[in-house]
Amino acid sequence: MPILRRLFCLSLLIGLAACSTNPPPGIHVVGNFDIQRYAGRWYEIARLDHSFERGMSDVSATYTLQQDGSVQVLNRGYQESESKWKEAVGRALFNSTPDVASLKVSFFGPFYGGYHVIALDPDYRWALVAGNDNSYLWILARDKQLPQTTIDHLLDQARQAGFDTQALIWIKQNRQQPVERSQ
């Protein structure tokens, strides 16, 4: 039995190593990216549904550059069904150089997912973020709301990139965020 367990673990590790954290085919990420300007709190305006945020409102992400060049990610949201705030702390690493907005993020040890900024306001006021495939998409903003003209522009970009914008969930942002805990 120990040999089977070792073979299973080895095949799992090989499989994980083969997992891509690249953007979906045909999707281009933002260049001339400045993580210093991107750092700070972003509010989730809309997202495609996925299990790890299901049922949450008032979702935000706070990005903090670390001394080793990684980025701490603090995701926070209000779980409606439990009437309480939940948060997860992760770590993001650049897939190539820090001036290319393509990262891999882990909240669970060695398991990484893609985080690719595919559209970004020149003043870093809003961002369109994709995952590894077309089932992950977020519209983020520095403020809890965006003008409709900006939303229409982002929806058009997302549609052109092959995302199902009809499936987006629009996030309520009504609650005051809890105080940031010390980093």
TrEMBL record:
It comes from the Bacteria. The keyword Signal applies. It holds the Pfam family Lipocalin_2. It is found in: Cell outer membrane. Residues 33-173 form the Lipocalin/cytosolic fatty-acid binding domain. Its main location: membrane. The keyword Nuclease does not apply. Belongs to the calycin superfamily. Lipocalin family. Homodimer. This is Outer membrane lipoprotein Blc. It comes from Undibacterium griseum. The lineage of its organism: Bacteria, Pseudomonadati, Pseudomonadota, Betaproteobacteria, Burkholderiales.
